[in-house]
Amino acid sequence: MKQKNMLTWAISAIVYLGLVIGGYFIYASLNSNNDHLDAHAAKTNGIEEKESNNEKAHNGNHTSKKSDDKHSDHVAHSESEVVTNVKYEKGIITIDVKDKKQNSPNLEISHEKIMHLIIVSADLEDYYHLHPEEKGNGVYTLNFDLPENSYKAFVDIKPKNLAYQVSPVGLQVGKSHSEHKENPLKVDTNLTKTINQKTVELTTTELGINKAVTLSFDTKGITPEPYLGALGHVVILDDKGKKFVHVHPTSEEKTLFETKFDKAGIYKVWGEFKFDGKVNSYPFVIEVK
């Protein structure tokens, strides 16, 4: 009887031990499979993450390329597709306007005129705002006596469906003054000017780079007469006579003008206002810091 009990206990111990060992192997197998699945999942996620990063990089490059293309288009469009030549002979100013194929482009009317011709002397002292008339085949002329001097002409036009950049055109009237030197502009300390007994004072918001600047012209209680469809016009040149800006008023009731300066430097501003049937050009020299 005692021997039978010992045999039963031994068999039970062996069975229990077998169950423990079997359970351990099953547990280990399951963990191994989970580890394998986790590793596979991690590997898969790594591939997906890599693909996602590659896709982001591709999209980023694509976006950058779009931006570059847009910038390139902007640069291309800013290049003038129209060429202007200006000549002066025997009191007649002649402007020839042609596109790159030597065809005469159609011009849109801007502020009641098809062409605004701004002529300034090389030292930026003399100033003329003229309006040549079309003669056909891209030729525009005007009878006007220019005193003997060196000039820069700016042909302000709006060609239809063509990019155009206003740039200075050299114009020599009379003998060439090779010894002529451009006088450096001096910033005005007094921004109040009187011409033909009509006084105009210029005030500005802070003159900074690439920020909206408001030019306010106080006409001392006298409302200017309409001139070319507006209360006035403003032309701005840098001190080298290269950068040209033609500004029109932002209001039909006030002599306010808005513009931007992309570079620091000294600029000359001409405010044009009509009083008693005459157009006065008020010059001001300002500095953008």
List keywords for this structure.
Immunoglobulin-like; single chain; 3 domains; 1 helix; alpha+beta; four-stranded antiparallel beta sheet; 16 strands; about 290 residues
Can you tell me about this structure?
The protein has one helix at residues 2-78; strands at 82-89, 92-99, 116-121, 127-130, 133-136, 139-143, 149-156, 169-173, 192-195, 198-204, 213-218, 233-238, 244-247, 256-259, 265-275, 278-288. The protein has 289 residues and is α+β, with helices and mostly antiparallel strands. It has three domains: 1-78; 82-173, Immunoglobulin-like (Sandwich), CATH 2.60.40; 192-288, Sandwich (Immunoglobulin-like), CATH 2.60.40. The strands form four sheets. Strands 1-2-6-5 form a four-stranded antiparallel β-sheet, with no helix packed on it. A hairpin with a 2-residue loop joins β9 (192-195) and β10 (198-204). The longest helix is centred in the N-terminal third of the chain and has 77 residues, at 2-78.
Describe the SSE topology:
Layout: H1 2-78, E1 82-89, E2 92-99, E3 116-121, E4 127-130, E5 133-136, E6 139-143, E7 149-156, E8 169-173, E9 192-195, E10 198-204, E11 213-218, E12 233-238, E13 244-247, E14 256-259, E15 265-275, E16 278-288
Strand order of the largest sheet: 1-2-6-5
Radius of gyration: 40 Å
Query: What is the element string, with H for helices and E for strands?
Result: HEEEEEEEEEEEEEEEE
Number of helices: 1
| Total count of strands | 16
Q: CATH superfamily assignment of the largest domain?
A: Immunoglobulins
What is the number of independent domains? 3
Query: Could you give the distance between the termini?
Result: 115 Å
Q: What assembly state would you assign to the polypeptide chains in this entry?
A: single chain
CATH class of the largest domain: Mainly Beta
Give the structural class.
Answer: alpha+beta
**What fraction of residues sit in β-strands?**
25-35%
Write the CATH fold name of the largest domain. Immunoglobulin-like
Q: So, CATH architecture of the largest domain?
A: Sandwich
Largest sheet: 4 strands, antiparallel
- Average pLDDT, all residues: 80
Shape designation? globular
Task: Identify low-pLDDT runs.
Answer: 24-77
Helix content: 25-40%
